[in-house]
Amino acid sequence: MNTKLTMLSLVVSAALAGCSSGTATGPGSAIGVITGFGSVYVNGVEYETGGASVDIDGQAGTENDLAVGQMVTLHGSINANGITGNATSISFADNVEGVVISTAIAADGTGSLDVMGQTVTVTAQTLFESGVTGINLINDIVNGNIVEVSGFSQGDGNITATYIEAKASSFSGQVMEVKGLVSALDTGAKTFQIGSLVVDYGSATMELGSRALANGLYVEAKTMSAISGSTMAASKVELESDGDMDIDVAEGEEIKIRGLITEVGADYIILNGQTVYFTGSVESEDGLALENLSTGMMVELEAYMSAAGQLMAMEVESEKEDDFSIRAHLQAVDMVNKTVTILGQTIHVDTNTMMRDERDEGITPVRYFNLDDLLANNWIKVKFYRDATRGLVATRLERDDDNSAAGAFKMEGLVEQVDATTFTIAGVVIDLSHYGTAAVGQELEVTGTYLNGVLVINSVVLNL
User: What pTM does this model have?
Assistant: First the structure.
């Protein structure tokens, strides 16, 4: 629990379907996670994609090649309403695709993987997909499996995954690749490192344009040979993004970026590989200023490109914490107000809500899954937080196969209120006789049934 997902301060309510509207304010770019389709939703904006080009790892693709959870770079325009726009191009490039060297995944599906010398942090917010027999959950990943990873990366071998896909149970000659910043270059031995992976480029085709191989150069290394220990015999090394991780935007163009802060300087931060300067007036509904920011924070900001070629911060917001999670049968959907009702609680859904159809038992999941695909009594899982103005707001909503008993539910969350006989989690009032003593801020797991408005508790346990 306590996983996080950014909410743009501009978003108060948003339609989750339909085309763009309003007058475009001008060019706008985004670096962020895809949260939904039916158009493409990135960083709280619904981008119409009818005329957009799609690039998948340097090759022409289509919108069907994209997936919820993937980190993309998008160019286009944002309308005056701030929540719709038009994409002209969308590009996706995984951070690493290759063999798993070691795993450290806990029972709850969080932890880390070493994928070809890259330390991949797996959080409760990481989306996992698999078409490989026997690999159904992230916990099923073992050494030797082949996976693809997308997420927040600084190019130094540390990746916080937003999306992981199992590609194969073992290496069988497929292309494996890793992107990152060159370090520990040894021109005599013809080796360098990306993270802890040693790349032997002695027999590789070098496609660096006019650039010379050097420490700090952003490259992609590929191989079709098995990894030996922590060493890759590269078949190709090519320049990635002109050799640095900076996004290419025009002077005056605005950009929205969501990512992890990895460095805070006297007048700048580095956010998901982008250096953003704080030298002018920066708005924040959270009251954040540069001195409040620290490494490891996840934030979303708006910036523009100055005449000097620097990204200048305009607005910064911290993340909202999804302190609650409910698995239950859906009671109702309100398409007008964009809400779902479960366990008697109304939860708002907006353009930042990550939406996915997870059904796979004899049913083809809806690829462009959205609020209007939901039906009463669907089995869903919702992660959400409490907003002072809007009430309960979803960060993630998934529909799954229904193998549950009638009215069954599972709820996890922080105790919000305690009185003489009851405690409250996410607005659900529970008799203390089911647990004993509860304290505000405790994280509890509650299971039971909810039928015809009657709540029956089976168990309440403390989440450690």
Answer: 0.83
